[in-house]
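Q: I'm writing up a methods section and want to include an example of the input and output format. Could you take the sequence below and give the corresponding predicted structure tokens, formatted cleanly so I can copy it straight into the document?
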Amino acid sequence: MWGRTLQFLPKSKDREGLLPWVIGVMLFLCALAIASAAAIGTGIESWSRDLASNITVQVVVADATERQAQTDAALTLLRATPGVQSATVLASSEVMALVSPWLGDLPIDANLPVPALIDVALDGVTPVNTTALSERLAIAAPGAQLDDHQAWLSQILDLAAVVQIVLISVVGMVVLSTVAIVIFGCRAGLATHAEPIAIMHLMGAEDSMICRAFDLRYLAHGIKGGLVGIAFALLTLWLISRMATELGEGLVSAFAPSTDFSAWLLLMPVFAALLTMATARITVRRALKEMM
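A: Here is the clean output for your methods example:
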């Protein structure tokens, strides 16, 4: 039955041969944008959770003896503060590793006035008033400075939100572009084969029969284009995830797309096929009413 309804459509793919490839490219871009937005959200949430559970105290004093004394006083105060799980002074080698991207590789005994850094882990149960803690630190150790990362983290969150909005907008534009391309293809096909369609009307063919023919044709285009696009998207995401994993733990690996989310992308070819078919049906129905 379906074969008969398709007989009035051209068998050659000269006019619509590129449509599956266009749909594939659109779905590829859409999948990358969705995966990137989801990865950014997951990475920012995980990263901000880790930062919220830690604060940093640095003791900036030029004299080494005084710096050590103030560091000990800050440690005593921090370890006695409710909500603080642990307070550990970073070794000189760790501090030099942190500043090496800006100062280059320097020996530990370079006699630089490097501040003492205290890594403070919070227990996550008892809230810590960082403002009051900073005031008490200023009394116990005047050279101590508390950094709870909130100001910097707020800027990162704002940037991530803007990037996510841009990516979602890209998805919307890609979907609208796909719909526009399908509408153009349907109208071009109807205009090209207006005479066979008019003859079928005279022979008693209903609009639903003609719409079904276009439904099947564009459903096939959507499936083929969707499978090609999602295959390339999954391959790209896998390569990105592998490269991020090789870089090790940290900010870059936090934004690597997860395998579980990538599995949901397999449903996108179905969405592309249904969207293409629905657009074709609506376009053909409206065009046939105009032809009557």
